[in-house]
């Protein structure tokens, strides 16, 4: 049993992984270099008006040509891990077929550079950038595409798995299904089927994730000795009126409909959360439909999905207020199924992204919720960070404050609550192409000058601060803390 550790001296455990994160489309550029095929994001950004200021990721941080600059920043920070994603269409230009050797070489150079620097590679196979050729076949809804993902994953295990020991199949499947197939604001932009499409696609993603997990487990793990999981995301939510049982239940439903949608099948029963099954079935019934819009798994599929992640990877940025709300019954949408209303608490510190309030204690609560809900699983924070606007700001006060307070809450979760947190990964190493916001918001520890063809990188104050936290392994007490704790040497 966990005992509250009074002697940690402000530090995380010695083997704690400290990292930063990026994703392929957001940093690499080289969108058609050396035989790379187009992804859905290449095509989406090439339609003027889809992205703020009509920005694209054609060049982004130019990481495809600036590997050494990226490795330099990583070593300067002193990180012990680097989470990045592979561009599927750089490796298989049309999603399947013959690999593109020059694209493979790029990732070999990156991985070798990390290993030579004692930095542990954490690799995401899919961070939103489906090869366009596979979208043309119907994307995640076509079994041919699911087969292609499995083949691509196996190729990555056999090519990079001698050096990569930490795999994530998907980044934030909730974002893909909610924003790609529900709200339709990111590729593939499906807007007309919000009551069905997100559930249908999530179902397929869960099954193919499980298939890739089993392949790794059976054919690669013994030889390569790595871990495999996926990164899930949610906001932390607080009930609007903490004394109103309906708001408390609504907050729990929100978590079950975002995180639980994927985590409950994988980490608990092989099936969706009960409250989600009940809500969607009940709404479907009231809508005079013959069956629930939420698809169901066979007993065999449940057994196949259950337990298909070795560790829990969570991305979290902010917190929200949630209350009970009964929306209109029709037309059916996945958002209305959960009977919640979300709002921001205006008294929480705001940031450049209006919906992202900096609420550090929300991280501690979410980590505790995961521990309660899914058992004493090993947890990695695979993304956490804050936006500032496009003006260069090397003083970087808000980001410094954000990391200091969030990492401190993570420390409390480890040392006071006994959460089995094994690593913390900041989003992001540097400013990147921020999806529909383009370059208008910045998440980086390093500033990137996107107007300069050389894309120079410059550390912000938060980079220097994060390097100190990593060097110290947390917030060790100094002599000035003696009045609080007495003599502790
Ligand atoms: C993360 O998602 C992403 O994994 C990462 O790539 C990104 O850079 C980071 O956020 C910072 O934003 O489609 O414009 O309506 C965090 C959760 C869920 C936040 C989807 C943005 C969609 C905004 N995200 N949401 S939009």
Automatic annotation (TrEMBL):
The active site is at 383 (nucleophile). Homodimer. Belongs to the glycosyl hydrolase 1 family. This is beta-glucosidase.
